[in-house]
Amino acid sequence: MRLPLALIANVRLLNSGLRIRHSIHNGVLKTSLLSSHNICSRAERKWIKPAGFDTGVKTYNSLTKQKEPLVLAQERIATWYSCGPTVYDHAHLGHACSYVRFDILQRILSRIFEINVIHVMVITDIDDKIIQRSLEQNISPTVLARMHEEEFKRDMQALRVLPPAVYMRVTDNIPQIVAFIKRIIGNGHAYVTSQGNVYFDTQSIGNRYGKLVNLGGIVGELGAQDKRDPRDFALWKASKPHEPHWESPWGQGRPGWHIECSTIASSVFGSQLDIHSGGIDLAFPHHENEIAQSEAYHQCEQWGNYFLHSGHLHLKGSVEKMSKSLKNYVTIKGRYISDECLRCSANHNALGQLANQSRLHLSEGGTL
What we know:
Mean pLDDT: 82
CATH topology of the domain at 54-186 and 258-356: Rossmann fold
CATH architecture of the domain at 54-186 and 258-356: 3-Layer(aba) Sandwich
CATH class of the domain at 54-186 and 258-356: Alpha Beta
CATH superfamily of the domain at 54-186 and 258-356: HUPs
Radius of gyration: 20 Å
Shape: globular
Structural class: alpha/beta
Number of strands: 15
């Protein structure tokens, strides 16, 4: 899905020193220019309370591990980015709980506190899992991704989750991703290997790496042999035989996992984001790496002001989260659980559960 023209214009303004003001009037997204208030000096890992409009709301912020006053950069406007699905399989009830929880929060902000929530969600439609599943099913990765993307949207509609202002696919934003990586390299925070891979250089940002998660030692992505540091992560992956690929200055390849969110969020909201949301399992490495590469791109000390994470859904009696990879999931359109049942249960539970990111348990009878 392509962006509305008003949002596409933001891509051209990333380096202009101007910010974009978003508002919704009668359901129409509007934009106007504001002068920039971005802070662009090097800093430590400490969270900085934003300056701006104090909503009177307090929210649990994963960056500080405590409740903080919700202060927005613009009066009564909340810029909100969320990680959407990787569309290689059916969405399950664990996904549903997360999206319903954040839907409730957005409704509270908009309907009770009269805040315009400008919500952008990414659809990850190119990924190792998508490629692997397409090979197993002998279909195109694009066909597989589109099929499950549309199914996800129907599931959200059945749950009465409000759609974002715009869904953005990774494959529709490859040129922007390439440009984003080039700037990170130019800023001295990434390097190209002889194999055509591009990695983020975690040593280049010192102790700023680890804002969300106390790493407690060396942690890194497995499988790569051409990195300088085990913690370094892929921005661009050199193509392999029979995989989808795009042209880049480093050769044919495709984006790494984390770079898509930084690029897309920045292309819409610029160098400052009010709220970023997702499941708690995304805090590391995904959100941690998003923060690192976004602040390296913008050369600022704080890109996202509030990170909100929802807890896992567990089958009753199980210590494992509901997960597609663990094959212990129940699909949203499962026969014995109606959307009315899930919505009712989630509304009763989500507000109390979200603040401390605790778990929800699903019994065999289908109740939460």
